[in-house]
Amino acid sequence: MSAILNTYNRKKISFKRGKGSFLYATNGKKYLDFVQGIAVNCLGHSNDYLNRAILNQSKKLWHVSNAFTIPEQEKLARKLKQKTFADFIFFQNSGAEATEAAIKFARRYFYSRGQKRKNRVLCINNSFHGRTLATIFASNSKKATEGFYPRVDGFDHFNFGDHKALEKAITNRTAAIMVETILGEGGIKVIPDFCLKGLRKLCNKKKILLILDEVQCGIGRSGKFFAFEYAKIKPDIVPIAKGIGGGFPIGAVLVNKKVASGMKPGTHGSTFGGNPLAMSAGNAVMDVMFKKGFLSNVKKNGEYFINELNKIREKYPKIIKEVRGKGLLIGLCLQKDQTKFINKLLDNNLLSIRAAENVVRLLPPLNVTKKEINLALKILNKVCENYR
Ligand SMILES: Cc1ncc(COP(=O)(O)O)c(C=O)c1O
After folding, report:
1. Given the CA of residue 127, which atom of ligand 1 is nearest to it?
2. What spacing in Å lies between the alpha carbon of 98 and ligand 1's midpoint?
3. Which residues of 238-258 are buried (b: 16+ CB within 10 A; e: fewer)?
4. Into how many domains does the chain fold?
5. Residue nearest to ligand 1 atom 16, measured at CA
6. Pair (243, 178) in one structural domain
7. Could you give the 3-state DSSP secondary structure of residue 46?
8. Which atom of ligand 1 is nearest to the CA of 130?
9. What's the mean pLDDT in 190-208?
């Protein structure tokens, strides 16, 4: 019997090595990995550039406290600042920590301006911002909150797409609206560009902050560095994680000058966040991601994949209801529960992962080749053809 706490329905399969889009299992089989640690390994497994960066740094220095200046951290912050809306960056270790810090920064901004009661955050029901006590009650799904009451206060909610309810839920105590630009765990639901533009306008009108959670959809996954770039808007706060470390645990919060003005030494901190080893991974990921043509290739491959998946949906409408997503953040929304479908893909050596609303998520590495996408399409066609 395993000594691991029983919080996952784990598949009885283990891997001994990975390279690019493929995983090699202890059972001798080779799998096409379209999970990639759930949108984490953006450069695939065992990427040579990333390996070298971490190896070189590991020989020099792993960890020092944030009580000292960390040049590798300064470097990654500068890169993120150069390439995005952000003026300042705070580093952490995971997505939930980043979203929770985003909430803290929003509250602190109004506190520092003397608006101490302006501290509530408005979120979408059944979204996903992490597993800490605060973030489960921000996400507000029954699955994540059951058994974990009392409720952490400070969050209000509206349903995805319900613009009227959103406007109605804003009060003089609302500090921020926090949404995932593309809902990941919630079923790969893309917030349309016109809604994102509307959100920005609404936040400006009500003088509240806009937090866009790009933990899953950010760092190139959508075909742009941030998914909100399609809508040509600038949020105030953006938590990131997953892809930024390419497999090394990194979280971060990007903020503009306005939000940064609420923070001062002692208001927030992290023991591990932004240590030299983690930052070597983040810097390497940024180097690759901003090479000419990398992001446009993600977009092109994503469009090709989604287009071809729609052809499969047209052939098998009784199995696949809808193809959702942007770039290489893709969901197949099935007509019925997706468990059997995911297992059939696994039997055919393609790894995928579930999301809410009967969705099968396909998350290849961002440097996936067209040949590998075609292999996945072949397997998907075969599984649909023989699906009973
Ligand atoms: C949008 C979003 N926010 C936050 C999180 C939490 O990230 P982590 O699991 O690294 O704490 C996730 C994880 O899936 C996520 O998808």
Report:
1. 1
2. 9
3. bbbbbbbbbbbbbbbbbbbee
4. 2
5. 216
6. yes
7. coil
8. 6
9. 98
